[in-house]
Design goal:
Elements: E1 3-7, H1 11-23, E2 27-31, H2 34-44, E3 48-52, H3 60-70, E4 75-80, H4 85-93, E5 98-101, H5 106-136, H6 147-158, E6 166-169, H7 176-185, E7 194-198, H8 207-212, H9 229-232, E8 237-241, H10 248-260, E9 262-263, E10 272-273, E11 277-282, H11 286-291, H12 297-303, E12 306-309, H13 320-335, E13 341-342, H14 344-352, H15 358-372, E14 377-378, H16 380-383, H17 393-399, H18 403-421, H19 426-433, H20 437-446
Parallel strand pairs: 1-2, 1-3, 3-4, 4-5, 6-11, 6-12, 7-8, 8-11, 13-14
Antiparallel strand pairs: 9-10
Helix pairs in contact: 2-3, 10-12, 13-15, 18-19, 19-20
């Protein structure tokens, strides 16, 4: 059974919600301020927290930040009597599941809670599966609990008994080499060499010699035999990164190896047969490269047996929190220091950054912050993200499913109900709403509420 914490400084609201949630079958605790909520969260780690936005000393947004910091999987619903777009954006930035405006029907908030807890249940299931996978297999370097990373882990599990060639695609910094190493570490070749070659770092004139070796005297400067990288990987796995940069002549030799397992050193008349598994990676579009003639189609077909695509970090932001904590622990251990906490604002900044350098950039940012932080908390200033873009309001609105329209509709309805309650007396209605008469007049004009002594919630 799920545990819910209700945080509201209004006793009637707090107790009403607690009773309703208990009747719905949930375990419920309730407190009147943020400080007590934080203390309870440290001891209990609730599945869901329902918190009022406007409270003394510590408002709902700060409670939200602290709750998510203590236990990120906890879902949080923020509620307030007067919703604004700015507060909605702030709540969603800080990780709120949803944003509910008062007054509301108990049935409505129970529906929201049911959806939030279903999301929590599925997330817990994914985390348990990931933990099981990590315990069974050596996938320590492949980190993330987003759906796409779980699909990657599932593919990696399927590859544990496979010898197939693998093509890994994705932008620079997405972790292609880590995935390749995970494939090797969980194969029958894990006690044999894992050799990494960056094809883009090899001058085209030297690629054949470096990869396949050469015989003494085969060309000017060949003063001794060179066995080549393929031979160094004998029995193990050869990871060819940036495969799109390989020369045409090397493409021909690689294709021959994939067809029959043989290589021929420059200057040798006899072939050498090797047992080497090939994994390649690229940040280029090889499909397009085959169309424009810069990459051989037959080689592409041989390499594209099993393809694993790693999306950019900006498309799997669910993983940022777990990656950040992982890097904090890694670099704190290296420096032999207590891992600092990441503040709520700092985490919000990390979540809303576009990460052009992907996971590698995040790792570098965290390493710097851990190294230079003076206190026990990593703050926004410690991250030194100089070119961070502010949150794109349009994207936020898209993710929130048109919350602007929903909030406006709810606010309009609340104003009309207050005016109706006081028979059109704007001063009394404004006082009831907790706003000035000027603000009420502006809102009436904005929502096209016509002044009169009788109101309804239709097309007024």
């Amino acid at each position: 059974m799920f545990n819910i914490l209700v945080v509201d400084d209004q006793k009637n609201m707090r107790e009403s919600l607690a009773i309703a949630f208990k009747r719905a079958g949930y375990y419920v605790d309730s407190v009147e301020n943020g400080e007590k909520a934080i203390n309870l969260q440290r001891d209990n780690c609730y599945d869901l927290v329902v918190v009022d936005l406007k409270m003394e000393n510590m408002d709902g947004l700060e409670v939200l930040s602290q709750i998510k910091h203590i236990n990120p999987p906890t879902e949080v619903i923020v509620m307030t009597a007067f919703g604004t777009i700015d507060s909605a954006i702030q709540a969603m930035k800080k990780g709120a599941y949803d944003y509910v405006t008062k007054p509301f029907q108990l049935s409505d908030i129970l529906s929201v809670i049911e959806r939030a807890l279903e999301k929590k249940r599925l997330s817990d299931k994914v985390n348990d599966l990931q933990k099981e996978i990590k315990e069974k297999y050596k996938f320590e370097g492949v980190i993330g609990n987003s759906p796409v990373m779980m699909r990657v882990l599932n593919i990696l599990m399927e590859l544990t008994n496979s010898e197939s060639t693998v093509l890994i695609t994705g932008e620079s910094g997405t972790g292609k080499e880590l995935v390749a190493r995970a494939i090797h570490d969980n194969s029958r070749r894990n006690n044999k060499p894992f050799v990494v070659v960056n094809c883009g770092a090899l001058p085209e004139s030297l690629q054949e010699s470096e990869l396949f070796g050469h015989a003494i005297g085969s060309f000017t400067g060949a003063v001794k035999d060179k066995k080549g990288i393929f031979l160094e990987a004998q029995g193990g796995t050869l990871f060819l990164d940036e495969i799109g940069e390989i020369s045409f002549s090397s493409q021909v030799k690689l294709l021959r190896f994939l067809q029959n397992g043989e290589i021929r050193r420059i200057g040798d008349n006899k072939p050498t047969f090797l047992d080497v598994r090939i994994i390649v990676a690229t940040n280029k579009d090889l499909d397009e490269a085959t169309k424009n003639g810069s990459f051989r189609k037959d080689l592409f077909y041989r390499l594209n047996v099993i393809r694993i695509h790693l999306p950019p970090l900006r498309e799997r932001k669910e993983d940022i929190h777990v990656l950040t904590n992982h890097f904090v622990n890694v670099y704190s251990n290296k420096l032999e220091k207590k891992p600092p906490e990441v503040s709520g604002d700092a985490m919000a900044l990390l979540l809303n950054y576009t990460w052009p350098g992907n996971v590698r950039e995040l790792e570098n940012v965290v390493e710097r912050a851990v190294t230079l932080v003076n206190g026990s908390n990593i703050t926004v200033d410690d991250l030194a993200l100089e070119n961070v873009q502010s949150v794109d309001t349009i994207n936020i609105m898209t993710e929130m499913g048109g919350i602007r329209a929903a909030l406006a509709q709810q606010e309009r309805k609340t104003i009309i109900e207050s005016l109706r309650k006081y028979a059109g007396n704007r001063k009394q209605a404004a006082s009831n709403l907790g706003i000035s008469t000027t603000t009420l007049w502006r809102k009436m004009k904005e929502y096209q509420i016509i002044p009169k002594t009788s109101y309804n919630t239709g097309n007024t």
